[in-house]
């Protein structure tokens, strides 16, 4: 087996943040690991950011594949628990000077799940995956990401299952911009583009409103784009039910590990 040096496109502060988190958790639980917290953090970041496989990491860090799995799972769980709930994220945002958020969804590609083939298949994207919903601020910075749902679930249904519109309604002063995939959402705070009539055209005024809304929503694309810089989310090869936890862990690293 050949070994080679590698690099992770992250700052030293991200490594230190995760290493400190792991060290504090070990001290609190009075537990021991073969690798020190710094090395475990490096291993986890190599998996999340670079998409290095468990086998590659096991060889590079001279541990077993099972140990790599446990190290990654432990760190992801620890990070995910630091993420804000939907209610906490919305209410923290309510204290800012902005009065709207951007709602968007994506489907993280996964390997085919033989036992649940249809459940995880996204007809829109034409591949198997997990549906994630996210809220972005007006600058495109993600403030919250949902748990994962099977890829066959439509964005609007996912929004209802996560109770997003109810939480936005309770904030009163916040509006939510979203695309046509959310048409039918029951909320006075949900701002959607106008759909073209079945037998006609939109008026010039409605077309201009749609263009303005599209420009407002455009920064929201940045939220998921930043998350997918973490290659583990380009095509998730583990259990599909774990995608949400990994996405939440990555968001915490983006928000706090700087």
From TrEMBL:
<dbReference type="InterPro" id="IPR036388">
    <property type="entry name" value="WH-like_DNA-bd_sf"/>
</dbReference>
<keyword id="KW-0378">Hydrolase</keyword>
<keyword id="KW-0540">Nuclease</keyword>
<keyword id="KW-0479">Metal-binding</keyword>
<dbReference type="GO" id="GO:0004519">
    <property type="term" value="F:endonuclease activity"/>
</dbReference>
<feature type="domain" description="Transposase Helix-turn-helix">
    <location>
        <begin position="33"/>
        <end position="84"/>
    </location>
</feature>
<dbReference type="Pfam" id="PF13613">
    <property type="entry name" value="HTH_Tnp_4"/>
</dbReference>
<dbReference type="InterPro" id="IPR027805">
    <property type="entry name" value="Transposase_HTH_dom"/>
</dbReference>
<dbReference type="InterPro" id="IPR027806">
    <property type="entry name" value="HARBI1_dom"/>
</dbReference>
<feature type="domain" description="DDE Tnp4">
    <location>
        <begin position="103"/>
        <end position="253"/>
    </location>
</feature>
<protein>
    <submittedName>
        <fullName>DDE endonuclease</fullName>
    </submittedName>
</protein>
<keyword id="KW-0255">Endonuclease</keyword>
<dbReference type="GO" id="GO:0046872">
    <property type="term" value="F:metal ion binding"/>
</dbReference>
<dbReference type="Pfam" id="PF13359">
    <property type="entry name" value="DDE_Tnp_4"/>
</dbReference>
């Amino acid at each position: 087996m050949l070994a080679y040096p590698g690099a992770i496109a992250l700052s030293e502060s991200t490594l230190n943040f995760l290493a400190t988190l792991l060290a504090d958790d070990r001290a609190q639980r009075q537990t021991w690991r073969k690798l020190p917290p710094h090395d475990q953090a490096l291993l986890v970041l190599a998996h999340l950011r670079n998409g290095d496989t468990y086998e590659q990491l096991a060889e590079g860090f001279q541990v077993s594949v099972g140990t790599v799995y446990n190290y990654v799972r432990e760190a992801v769980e620890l990070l995910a628990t630091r993420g804000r709930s939907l209610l906490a994220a919305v209410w923290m945002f309510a204290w800012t000077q902005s009065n709207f958020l951007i709602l968007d969804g994506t489907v993280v590609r996964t390997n085919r799940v033989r036992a649940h083939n249809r459940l995880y298949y996204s007809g829109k994207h034409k591949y198997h995956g997990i549906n994630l919903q996210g809220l972005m601020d007006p600058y495109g910075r993600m403030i919250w990401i949902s748990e994962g749902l099977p890829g066959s679930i439509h964005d609007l249904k996912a929004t209802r299952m996560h109770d997003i519109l109810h939480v936005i309604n309770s904030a009163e002063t916040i509006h939510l911009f979203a695309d046509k995939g959310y048409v039918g959402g029951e909320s006075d705070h949900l701002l959607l583009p106008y759909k073209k009539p079945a037998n006609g055209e939109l008026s010039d005024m409605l077309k201009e409103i749609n263009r303005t809304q599209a420009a407002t929503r455009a920064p929201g694309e940045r939220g998921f784009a930043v998350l997918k810089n973490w290659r583990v989310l380009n095509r998730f090869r583990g259990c599909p039910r774990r995608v949400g936890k990994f996405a939440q862990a990555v968001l915490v690293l983006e928000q706090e590990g700087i």
